[in-house]
Amino acid sequence: MEKQKSRPRKTAILIEDQYQVLEAWYPYLRLKEEGIASVFVGTGKKVYTSKEGYPAEAEISVQHIKSGDFDGVIIPGGYAPDILRRYKEVVDFVKVMHEEKKLVAAICHGGWLLASAGILRDRKVTGFFAIKDDLINAGGRYEDREVVVDGNLVTSRKPEDLPAFCREILRFF
């Protein structure tokens, strides 16, 4: 009997200007290393510049995707999440991915987008210390740890946490 081919695994990495370079590129490359397609998803333009000036090219715009196209979403930090959450399509995409019990992962300031999506109530979460109050005010139960996993939600605090962050993300695949 011939083995049925499964659909390739695919993760959206949300990108906007002022993203934190390591928090976008480390998961992007780490997932590719494991055979998981990583796709930079932007908000409408082609190239986004990190806080450090490093460019990332969006492969597709959030206006042209649906949750069924992806197995997970990763939200890098920097100041990009504050821009990302201004787009209803981005907020809705994150919320639907969460509702469908798919991987939703955020690092550093990425928690801002989780708060805007309204998915933190009674969930364990971490993030950069400067947004701790935002996460708590959104209903999250803040923990100061390198990575916090609560169901399909994976969160981390800063670039130094990336090995633990990616290790937990890979458990979903």
Features:
23% strand; 11 strands; Rossmann fold; 6 helices; 30% helix; alpha/beta; 173 residues; two-stranded antiparallel sheet
| Count of separate structural domains | 1
CATH topology descriptor: Rossmann fold
Please give the count of helices. 6
Gross morphology is globular
How many strands, what sense, and barrel or not for the largest sheet?
A: 7 strands, mixed
CATH class: Alpha Beta
- How large, in whole angstroms, is the Cα Rg? 15 Å
Note poorly predicted spans: 1-5
Mean pLDDT: 95
Helix/strand/pairing category: alpha/beta
- Could you state the CATH homologous superfamily? Class I glutamine amidotransferase (GATase) domain
Describe the structure in your own words.
With 173 residues, this protein is α/β, with parallel strands linked by helices. The chain has one domain (10-170): Class I glutamine amidotransferase (GATase) domain (Rossmann fold). It is built from 6 helices and 11 strands. Strands 5-2-1-6-7-11-10 form a 7-stranded mixed beta sheet, sandwiched between helices. The protein has a two-stranded antiparallel sheet with strand order 3-4. A hairpin with a 2-residue loop joins strand 10 (147-150) and strand 11 (153-156). Helix 3 (88-99) crosses helix 4. The longest helix has 13 residues, at 21-33. The chain starts with 9 loop residues before the first strand and ends with a helix. The model is unreliable at 1-5 (pLDDT under 50).
